[in-house]
Design brief:
The complex is a heterodimer of chains A (136) and B (402).
Chain A: E1 2-11, H1 20-28, E2 31-39, E3 45-54, H2 55-68, E4 71-74, E5 79-81, E6 101-103, E7 110-112, H3 122-126, E8 132-134
Antiparallel strand pairs in A: 1-3, 1-4, 2-3, 5-8, 6-7
Chain B: H1 5-13, E1 19-21, H2 24-40, E2 43-45, E3 48-51, E4 56-60, E5 74-77, E6 80-82, E7 90-94, H3 116-124, E8 129-134, E9 145-150, E10 157-165, E11 172-174, E12 181-183, E13 186-188, E14 195-197, E15 216-217, E16 220-223, E17 226-233, E18 256-261, E19 270-275, E20 279-287, E21 289-291, H4 295-301, E22 309-314, E23 328-331, H5 332-336, E24 339-342, E25 345-351, H6 355-370, E26 381-382
Helix pairs in contact in B: 2-4
Classes of the chains: A alpha+beta (136), B alpha+beta (402).
């Protein structure tokens, strides 16, 4: 059964210079799309990946990452909306490159679908009441 | 059949008034006709919740012992500078003020995470605000330094006084250039990447009384979640703007100056706001009741989004250079559909004014009136109308050493 997941990988300092993703792709036959990659001043690596492949291969790949010492988080946990600050103006809708914000045409309430979010961060500062929050 | 405000108030006091929102009145007039609707309905409530920069609050913080003359000195509230050019302990905090050490657009586009609008939101929320001041000292006001917490509950007055709010119509902003621009109309993507507008359209106060026939100076309104009043016409009030057959202006036109006691307002209805690369501001809630005095007024309140048009303006060149050109006109029903066509190109739209909140405001005001808690007021004087000849002027430079 094919799966497609967006995940955030945190590489500890000792793994930053190791070809982890290369092994993941080569040994587990997974398709990948890098959505974001960076190395922090503490020399920890951060990578946001979209992984596609067979459920079995995916599970084994994740297992490999875990054993290698990479911390894995689902991407959807990283971008959240502060529901108290959000005014549902809709300024975010045309800013988001993946259409993660959807306007209910009748009530004009803005829904945030974090499964579509790729954590690019464009909405964070474009939001006038600063309701969108990024937690990496 | 004409009604008076006194008759409507009598019905409100008895709990008999028929009150509907500016959204609900549309179907009522369509189904029953204006004559019947004018007979049945007493009040139509409007609402808007959008960023409004010309907003601020006067505070009287009380006298210290020994006394300090903040007037003419320097005062900061949570590091945001307040205006002190008035009496000893009166201050004005404006929505767009930013801390002296904010990098502004030196780190382009500036974040503008905190400014006067946020100070006002925090004050209303009951948070302690850090006041730091320097004064020059006088015989009667000897103190020169002050650092203290203040709280809205403890200071003498906190008066919201917004010199221009509730703009009657506004531009639809687009960007024709090849780079992203950061404006008070939000982030505008290059090559007509998006179009931003800011109105509650058919729910907006001044679209429902386009010629200012019922509202005027002294009109009691819902402001910042509490009670306020129309104090004057707002700055840049431009009743002479071109109008459609339904009297609705096709360009930015009338504005309101509004005032109210900040102490009874709510932080969720006065929201500190940050416009990336532009500055700070505040999102203000205003709800104006329209008394249905006659058929003409009820017809005005039945205005629909499709009956209101706005000008599409390029903010990369036309707006900054003060050129008169517009790229066309578009009605609000199309804007709210999520996509419009500009120069043959499909452009996604977004709003900076919150429609769901505008609905909430109109319903809140409706609830107050129906419960007999909010009586209407007779305006003390009208706002300048089309006949006033008032026109929006530009500043024509007269070089001093020219």
């Amino acid at each position: 059964m094919p799966v497609s997941r967006r995940i955030v990988l945190h590489f500890p300092r000792r793994l930053v210079d190791r070809p982890i993703v290369y092994r993941l792709i080569k040994d587990y036959d997974l398709e990948f799309n890098i959505l974001k990659a960076s190395v922090t001043p503490e020399e920890e690596g951060l990578m946001v990946l979209e992984l596609k492949g067979d459920q079995k291969d995916y599970d084994q790949g994740i297992n490999y990452l875990n054993e290698a010492g990479v911390q894995i988080q689902a991407l959807s946990q990283n971008v959240t909306r502060n529901e108290i600050r959000c005014t549902h103006c809709g300024a975010c809708i045309t800013i988001c490159p993946t259409a993660a914000f959807e306007l209910d045409k009748k009530t004009r309430v803005v829904a945030f679908d974090n499964d579509k979010c790729i954590a690019c961060g464009l909405c964070i500062k474009s939001c006038p009441p600063r309701a969108m929050e990024l937690h990496f | 059949m004409a009604k008076t405000i006194a008759e409507i108030n009598d019905r409100i006091s008895k709990g008999q008034a028929v009150v509907v929102t500016a959204e609900e009145i549309i179907d009522i007039v369509t189904e029953k006709g204006a004559e019947e609707a004018a007979r049945e309905v007493d009040v139509v409530t409007t609402g808007t919740f959008g960023p409004m920069c010309s907003s601020g609050a006067f505070l009287n913080v009380g006298h210290t012992k020994p006394r300090i003359k903040l007037g003419g000195g320097e005062v900061y509230l949570n590091d945001v500078p307040a205006y002190t050019g008035i009496a000893a302990v009166d201050l004005f905090i404006g929505a767009t003020a930013v801390p002296d050490d904010d990098p502004r657009n030196k780190a382009y586009p500036g974040d503008f995470n905190y400014g006067g609008g946020h100070v006002i939101e925090e004050l209303v929320a009951g948070n302690d605000i850090r006041l730091t001041a320097r004064a020059y000292g006088t015989d009667c006001y000897p103190r020169r330094r002050l650092e203290t917490w203040i709280n809205i509950a403890d200071i003498n007055e906190a008066t919201l006084f917004n010199i221009r709010n509730a703009y009657q119509n506004y531009n639809v902003a687009v960007n024709l250039s090849d780079r992203t621009i950061y404006t008070y109309m939000g982030v505008l993507k290059p090559h007509l990447g998006n179009a931003n507008y800011s109105t509650s359209g058919q729910l907006s106060p001044l679209f429902n009384d386009p010629l200012y026939k019922t509202l005027g100076i002294g009109t009691k309104i819902l402001l910042g979640g509490g009670i306020g009043y129309i104090a004057w016409h707002g700055t840049q009030h431009n009743p002479a703007a071109p109008r459609l057959d339904n009297d609705v202006p096709r360009r930015p036109a009338g504005t309101l100056a509004v005032i109210g006691d900040l102490k009874q307002m709510k932080p969720e209805w006065l929201r500190g706001t940050s416009m990336l690369g532009y500055g700070t501001t505040i999102t203000v809630c205003i709800g104006v009741p329209i008394p249905i005095l006659n058929e003409e007024i009820v017809r005005y309140t039945a205005v629909r989004d499709r009956d209101i048009v706005a000008a599409i303006v390029d903010y990369s060149d036309v707006y900054p250079q003060g050129k008169p050109d517009v790229l066309g006109e578009i009605d609000y029903a199309s804007l709210k559909s999520g996509q419009i066509t500009v120069q043959g190109q499909e452009v996604p739209t977004a709003s900076l004014s919150s429609y769901p909140k505008a609905v909430e405001i109109a319903n809140l005001l409706k609830k107050w009136i129906k419960a007999g808690e909010f009586l209407l007021t007779e305006p003390v004087a009208p706002l300048p109308g089309v006949e006033s000849g008032i026109r929006f002027k530009n500043l024509e430079d007269r070089p001093i050493n020219g």
